């Protein structure tokens, strides 16, 4: 059980749970429109932060939400890549952080994984694809039975060397 379940939800988590419940009740996710465009003057880190803000509808919370963004030293930006690092994004709260990893999936779409401790080795690994506020709410409610985790969970180089959850 993730540590987030032991504490009251912070404002982002509370909004996520509400969105997930509404999606479950109506069968429809909120329409958020296309991702922000990457303009040539933007840095890729800034753009990824803007995309995460957009996908999680953070502007709708009515309060500023900080996101700390940096290169991730452990994961590649694309599957089997080596030259470009993935991007780590953290949303800090008084009681902890929500940590995301931005990579490109095998269809070259920008995707966000929530980082959480591996069940087996405890290292922070890509655990669940979170590309909407509803996804985050489902994760927090542990309602993602059919999804089976992020495709990057098994391939993450962040696992301990002995970890059986990792496969090549
Ligand atoms: Zn592991």
Structure write-up:
The chain is about 20% helix and about 25% strand. By secondary structure, the protein is of the alpha+beta class. The protein has one domain. A 5-stranded antiparallel β-sheet has the order 1-2-3-4-5, covered by helices on one side. The two termini are about 25 Å apart. The mean pLDDT is about 90. The site of zinc ion has 10 residues, from loops.
List the uncertain runs: none
The tally of strands reads 5
Q: Output the radius of gyration.
A: 16 Å
Q: What overall geometry do the principal axes of the alpha carbons give?
A: globular
Mean pLDDT: 89
Give the tally of structural domains. Answer: 1
Strand content: 15-25%
| Largest pleated sheet | 5 strands, antiparallel
Number of helical segments with 4 or more residues: 3
Name the ligand types: zinc ion
Structural class of the helix and strand makeup?
A: alpha+beta
Give the H and E element order. Answer: HHEEEEEH
Seen as an oligomer or otherwise, the chain set is: single chain
Walk across the major sheet and give the strand order.
1-2-3-4-5
Classify the helix fraction into a percent range.
Answer: 10-25%
How far is the N terminus from the C terminus?
26 Å
């Amino acid at each position: 059980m993730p540590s987030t379940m032991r504490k009251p939800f912070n404002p982002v988590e509370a909004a996520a749970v509400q969105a997930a419940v509404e999606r479950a009740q109506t069968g429809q996710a909120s329409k958020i429109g296309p991702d922000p465009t990457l303009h040539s003057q933007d840095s890729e880190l800034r753009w990824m932060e803007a995309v995460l803000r957009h996908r999680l509808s953070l502007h709708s919370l009515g309060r500023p939400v900080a996101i700390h963004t940096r290169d991730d030293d452990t994961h590649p930006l694309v599957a089997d890549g080596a030259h470009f690092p993935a991007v780590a994004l953290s949303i800090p709260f008084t009681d902890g952080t929500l940590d995301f990893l931005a990579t490109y999936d095998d269809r070259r779409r920008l995707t966000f994984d929530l980082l959480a401790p591996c069940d087996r080795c405890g290292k922070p690994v890509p655990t669940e694809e979170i590309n909407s506020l509803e996804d985050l709410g489902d994760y927090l409610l542990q309602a993602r039975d059919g999804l089976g985790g992020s495709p990057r969970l098994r391939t993450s180089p962040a696992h301990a060397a002995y970890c059986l959850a990792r496969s090549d």
